Amino acid sequence: MMTSSELVYNKSLEELYSDYETSPSGLDTSEAQKRLKYNGLNSLREVQNSVFSIFVSQFQNSIVFILIAAALLSFVMGEETDAFFIIGILILNSILGFIQEYRAENSIQALKKLTETHVRVKRSGLELLILSEQLVVGDITPLAEGDLISADMRLIESQGLHVDEATLTGESIPTSKQILTPLAIGTPIYERSNMLFSGTFVTKGTALALVTATGENTYLATIAKSAQKKSPLSPLTRALAIFSKRLIFALIFILIIVGIIGFFSGIPYATLASILTAELVSAVPEGLPIVVTLILALGAFRLSKHKVLVRHLPAVESLGSATVIATDKTGTITEGFLSVDRAEVIDEKELMQCAALCNDATLEHGDAVDKALVLWLESEYEPLRENNPRIFFHPFDPKSRFMATLNKMNQEKERLHVKGAYETLRTMSANTQEELARLDAAHDNMASKGLRLLAFAICDENWEDPDTWKIKIVGLIGFADAAKAGVEVAVKKAQDAGIRVIMITGDNQITAQVIAKDVGIYKEGDLLLNGNEVETFSDEKLQAMLQNCTVIARALPEHKYKIVKLLQEKGEIVVVTGDGVNDVPALKAADLGIAMGNGSEAAKSVAKMVITNNNLSVIVDAIKQGRIITANLKKVILYLLATCFDEIIVISGGMILGLPLAVLATQILWINIVTDGMVDKTFAMCTEEGDVMKNPPRKIDTQFFDRWQIGKITWISLVNALITLALFAYLLKKGYAYEIPLTVSFCTIVTSQWVNAVLAQKSEEPFFLNIKKSFTINPYVWIGLALGILLQGSVLYFVPSWLHVITPTPWMLGYIMMATLLTFLLIESYQWAIWILKKRFY
């Protein structure tokens, strides 16, 4: 007995009855119970990580390692308050991450809900109602409009059957199903018209079907298995990992060099240990993980105002790194429902009557095409149906491709109304040659625009036998799933930002191409692929073609997944949008999966973001917010690293010059409080600097550490450190007691870092290019500076001995102010030079 639906579409019904040891009257009840015990329930198997493993995984990233190192260092230096604060942040992050990942692991549960229902089944000659999980291969099950299909099945009988397969194939229009001779081996899923698949549902008609696969053997199960694969690390996590490795390598190198120089210079071991400890304290940007978390959390809050809900915090920054948006069509680019786009009218009155009478839909229920006609007719359809009652109904026949109704018109004569494919109705038409020529031209024109077409006709006599019908075509109507407002502008914004937009849909090529062209995704010269080509081309050939491809039609879930993986292999950061079960594999594999708010629970459970307004424009607006977040992260890294290396150079340079320590380890901890501690959190509040959507996406390995960033960190560090050291050495040479130069150098480092904080708020432009913007880009930095000044003044004027300094005199303050002004001018001059260089040559 067969237990899989593989190739059953290629077999005759007689062969299937034999293979599955069943008959049109169904299985015996006892045999069904044996098969249930042997094959198991018709449900998806749960494969979930343990709660413990999910929790442990929260500690396996570079941000957490930096937090742990910072906490341990704070404990060693006796700063228990800082240590406990950092540990608190660590625990909070881990709890949030645990909750998010635990919810994502429930994706299989969401998929199971698609098959948890009751179904009718024939057993031992009787029709029974059973739980869908008790279906077994070989069962015969009747189906009617509204029924959920709970297993893979082969049709035995059907009458006007249409099935919505959007959750699996992405096809926006219900698919006509019919009993055909066996299909050719290799027929794609979306063309298997004699098959029904688990997770889809009947929109029209009736059928009798043979269950060919259940549970883990269904097509739906292959999608569920894809949902179990781990998602890639977010671009932020990867970028910070690269950044952390480079930083650690640089710091180890510096400390080794300083240690060697100190050893051969004959510096006492105790003094050298103090120097290295001070440098280690300086080197760890302990505020970075906290600021990163704050920036991401604030970014998530801002995105929520743009109708974007964040389920995975690092995904906030992933938006800013995106290089490709792989979007579906229905519901994201288009409205997601059919509407009448245009009509070619021969007789307006008769066309409207036919559209109303040869139609079973209402505003709330019915086939997508019929509902579109009802909307087009507005309030006209109800009185038309009341005044012209139906006598007879000829259901849709997939072979002849038409349906018909016989109505008593105004309680008088009887009239046949026919709706169907124009090609079919034309062969039965009694229209004039002039009318047919007009209809032919309209048909070709509308078809070229990707519209779905239906012809409408009437017949007043000889309607008893369809073979003798002579009908008059009264009109032709074209239906479209119209593009959403704002999508074309959104596509242009994304393309201007260096982001490629690729539309991946289950719809046919003509429809996909027309919609993509209308919204600016597809342009002349672009490639258009279909699912069959994705399946048959080699990975190398497909990867090359994807570089110039903007539309992929007739795509299946495995095709979408494959495309995402091939793009990622080329270094692309891929954002995938989706709403159906068919999107789950690609959503999970993407760098950032975005589910639609009204989509399936399966899609939402694996996505890292959910948008409540299903529109591509929302995603592009969210990318803008993501880029602002990325820019703010880069600014805070610039600020924190410049301050770290500033202190390292002061300490190392002083040792090389044979000077005493210009700043002590305890003073460094205080400096970190009144500078970093008071200011770095405010970087989260920076608004947009320039137009972030005019810049191309940055590569992950240079996201926060490109050559311009390295150059600026180096310049700021050297300027701050050399001015401080020069002033410290000058005052020592003048013969002042050690605590005076130490106080001046300590205060100079603090004020220079405050200057750095103000200038870092605008990393792309000089401060004086737009003074108003420089003061308003982040008003909160001034609050941070005010608090820092208050704390610094309190220590200097009330308890200076705590930090081994004295209260500065006016002349000492003069030196500090001059050094700070010189620092500002040199950094601002550098920023002007870089800005001019970029404008002229880049």
- Rounded mean pLDDT is 82
Q: What is the distance, rounded to the nearest whole angstrom, between the alpha carbons of the first and last residues?
A: 69 Å
Please give the largest β-sheet.
Answer: 8 strands, mixed
Structural classification: alpha/beta
Helix content: 40-55%
What is the count of helical runs? 31
**Cα gyration radius (Å):** 35 Å
- What general form does the structure show? elongated
Q: Report the β-strand fraction as a percent range.
A: 5-15%
User: Strand arrangement, largest sheet?
Assistant: 8-21-20-19-9-16-18-17
Low-confidence stretches: none
Counted beta strands: 21
Compile the SSE list and pairings.
Elements: H1 13-19, H2 29-39, H3 51-57, H4 62-76, H5 80-104, H6 107-112, E1 118-123, E2 126-131, E3 140-143, E4 152-164, H7 166-169, E5 175-176, E6 195-196, E7 201-213, H8 219-227, H9 235-264, H10 269-283, H11 288-305, E8 308-310, H12 315-321, E9 324-327, E10 339-345, H13 348-357, H14 368-377, H15 381-387, E11 390-397, E12 402-408, E13 414-420, H16 422-427, H17 433-448, E14 452-459, E15 472-480, H18 487-496, E16 500-504, H19 509-518, E17 527-530, H20 531-536, H21 539-546, E18 549-553, H22 557-569, E19 574-578, H23 584-589, E20 592-596, H24 601-606, E21 609-611, H25 616-656, H26 665-679, H27 707-733, H28 739-760, H29 771-776, H30 780-798, H31 810-841
Parallel strand pairs: 9-16, 9-19, 16-18, 17-18, 19-20, 20-21
Antiparallel strand pairs: 1-2, 3-7, 4-5, 4-6, 4-7, 8-21, 10-15, 11-12, 12-13, 13-14, 14-15
